[in-house]
Design goal:
single chain, 5 domains, two-stranded antiparallel sheet, 12 strands, alpha+beta, 329 residues, four-stranded mixed sheet
Length: 329
């Protein structure tokens, strides 16, 4: 027979477990395994138990915690009106004003904020133009004030707005209008009419050229690995081809990869899978490029991934380029 360590109840224990059986039940075992340390409450000085990991447990209950915060308040002076007010200890360094109204008046007077001061027609109080906590201002945007005062406030507020706030206001207004389905429908119809009109800005060659350059600059910010190979080859053998695949050079609205402006020859470097996906076949892509370049008096050289992945790729590409330069084919 053994006695339980927790409840002191007698328990029957076999001889084989006499040195291991210490508890009468699982409940007593859980109570024994829970490690507790004793602490004294900071407010009521009452002793209580906490787990060792709870390092911040210095109060025995929530009521003691709240009473401690209420008793430990800091007295401060409002920097706007001089009135004495109390704050909790954690805000002793941050709190400077006794109310939102005092904060707005201080910011307008000393920090030159975009908000302005005005006199209320009803109670003759001085307040800020956008303070909604003023007793006379309600949700109807100054319903209790005269129309002249409201117009004056609106005019002065717009004048005091700096460029950053004005841009933010206009962007928010534009987003709200874009979310309206009726306005979106009107804008869509308007742009459709402009696209159909042949004399509009959208159909001018200059607009199309600028639009394509902008799109290409966004898509191609650096040469691909294949284009880099051809660029290194041209530099190595002093070939007069310059990389222009960044969208800065167009021929009939088509941007070539490499350009020789002296002999009017361009090089197109491509991967066949993408051209089959976009044009149906590689031949269709080559016909499209020839039509664009040859109509403007340019010759074109095509180099695909098979040429660049070959062991003697430098010799293959060099022969293609030199043959075109010599024979004009």
């Amino acid at each position: 027979m053994n006695n339980c360590i927790i409840c002191k109840k007698e328990i029957y224990v076999p001889k084989s477990l006499i040195h291991r059986k210490k508890y009468c039940s699982i409940r007593c075992q859980h109570i024994a395994l829970k490690k507790r340390i004793n602490r004294i409450c900071l407010l009521c000085k009452k002793e209580f138990e906490v787990v060792p990991s709870n390092k911040s447990g210095i109060f025995c209950s929530y009521s003691c915690y709240h009473n401690y915060l209420l008793n430990k308040r800091v007295v401060k002076n409002c920097i706007a009106c001089g009135r004495i007010f109390e704050v909790i200890h954690s805000r002793k360094d941050k709190s400077k004003y006794c109310s939102i109204n005092c904060r707005d008046i201080w910011l307008n007077k000393y920090l030159k904020d975009s908000r302005i001061l005005w006199h209320c027609d009803k109670c003759s109080k001085i307040t800020s133009a956008n303070t909604i906590n003023h007793s006379c201002v309600n949700s109807m945007k100054g319903k209790n004030h005269s129309l002249e005062t409201i117009k004056l406030i609106s005019k002065r507020t717009k004048e005091k707005m700096d460029n950053v706030e004005l841009r933010r206001y206009l962007s928010l207004k534009q987003k709200k209008s874009q979310s309206n389905p009726r306005i979106r429908k009107l804008n869509s119809d308007k742009h459709k009419e402009l696209w159909e009109n042949k004399n509009s800005v959208y159909n001018s060659l200059e607009y199309r050229r600028k639009k394509i350059i902008a799109v290409l600059k966004g898509l191609m910010k650096r040469p691909t690995s294949f284009e880099q190979k051809i660029s290194d080859l041209c530099f190595k053998y002093s070939l007069s081809f310059v990389y222009r695949g960044d969208g800065g050079f167009l021929i009939n609205f088509k941007n070539p990869d490499f350009v020789n402006e002296k002999d009017k020859i361009v090089i197109e470097v491509f991967y066949s899978w993408f051209k089959i996906r976009d044009y149906g076949s590689v031949e269709n892509y080559k016909q499209f490029c020839r039509k664009k370049y040859e109509s403007a008096g340019w010759k074109v050289i095509f180099i695909d991934e098979l040429d660049l992945k070959a062991k003697d790729w430098e010799l293959l590409c060099l022969n293609k380029i030199q043959a075109t330069l010599k024979n004009g084919i």
